[in-house]
Amino acid sequence: MGCNCGKSxxxxxxxxxxxxxxxxxxxxxxxxxxxxxxxxxxxxxxxxPTWDDNGKQxxxxxxxxxxxxxxxxxxxxxxx
Length: 80
Description:
The protein is of the alpha+beta class and 80 residues long.
């Protein structure tokens, strides 16, 4: 598997927030985010994306300090 940073897609109804600080605020509130002592906050387990039973992506495994700064990236849950 691995990080899907280059594969994020915008879906209909997704909120588009490009401000990195606003994105990080939302990520800190997310129940899927995890604090990693080496990389900081990650979306789920680092480099291990997860999906629900219906095939909807829940986490991407990305390092959020980096991903939130990339304007074309999106939250896998559509929060930004």
